[in-house]
Amino acid sequence: MPGRKVATPLKAKNDSKPAKRTPAKQTPAKQTPAKRTPAKRPIDNDDQTPTPKRRRCLFTNPNNQPECYEDPSKIGSLAGLFLNREKIRLPGKTQLIKTVDHRMQIHDPLCTPVFPAKVPIDTIVNDFLIFKKLIRANKKATQEQMVQHAWGLSEMVRIFNEYTRSHILLAPEFKDFDKKRAKKASPSQTYGVIHLMRMISKLHEMLLPLSIYEDIKEEVPEFMKFIDSNYKKYWNREAEYPTTDKHSFERKTGIRWLE
């Protein structure tokens, strides 16, 4: 049998210096540029509180200028067309009629003015035309005469007839209005001075063309003075509210009896 080879132990090297290794050749890798970090600065105590964000004003545009509307006569849209209209003032007793009606609506909403009115709006306008000597006494003005002599008042009557239910009447008055409308009676033939004052006081809020509003506004003041001078003929105080006597009327309205 052949003899086995015995492994001889390696001799330990006495050199303290490690053997030099030759580095393997490596291909240079592509280096990505490092991100620059901003330089740190000392933070003062005052800077530690975050600054609140400024809220943008809703009434200014990005140029910090207040919102304004252009001249409505130079633009096609309706923006600003119904703004800044001067309210028609009611003189003397006409304002009293409006105030009484407003307080009655607050204290007794179900107590509506008498219907139909004893003196309708058409009769009041006709009396004014006679007073101005535009038509003969005891004559009734035709539509052509109204348009010719009092265009503003004719437009006022037309607007009243169109806007009666939507802008002038109260909810408890709708029932009587619908009955009269079924009989094809115009509102100006059934409603009187109380409802007329309601309309005049809110005419500037209605969506009317500016030209029509100006035409009505031009003639209404003289017409209101005529009603003020003859208010007893067209308004009978507590008799205008059938379910109210004199004492309850004065208590609800806060107005004493006027001779």
Automatic annotation (TrEMBL):
Residues 114-241 form the MRG domain. PROSITE patterns: MRG. The keyword Transcription regulation applies. The keyword Nucleus applies. Pfam families: MRG (PF05712). Keywords: Chromatin regulator, Nucleus, Transcription, Transcription regulation. InterPro entries: MRG (IPR008676), MRG_C_sf (IPR038217), MRG_dom (IPR026541). One of its GO terms (biological process) is regulation of DNA-templated transcription. Residues 1-70 are annotated as: Disordered. It is found in: Nucleus. One of its GO terms (cellular component) is NuA4 histone acetyltransferase complex. Its main location: nucleus. This is MRG domain-containing protein.
